[in-house]
Amino acid sequence: MGDVNNPALNIFTTRMRQLILQYRETIGEKGQLQQRYEELTKEVERLRGEIERIQREYDNLMLARMLEITDGDVETAKARIAKLIRDVNKCITYLKEK
Predict the structure, then answer these.
(1) Cα separation of 33 and 78, whole Å?
(2) What is the C-alpha to C-alpha distance for residues 40 and 86, in angstroms, rounded to an integer?
(3) pTM of the predicted model, to two decimals?
């Protein structure tokens, strides 16, 4: 067998232990990164659902706004027609008097 105090063997053994420790740390980091990736993937899916929900709400609000404007236009049109009818009635009354 070789000399137990062989410096090259000691250096090799020390480096191997360091590599094993680094490997174990890397494996631990990999596990943490995989867990974080899964968490972020779930968060992305949740946010996509939220975006879809907000987009539907926005579309509904825009449709409601369009209907509101249309209703407002109808009211305005009704008011104009009523004014025109009054004006026509005034003209008829004026013509009858002449």
Answers:
(1) 66
(2) 68
(3) 0.52
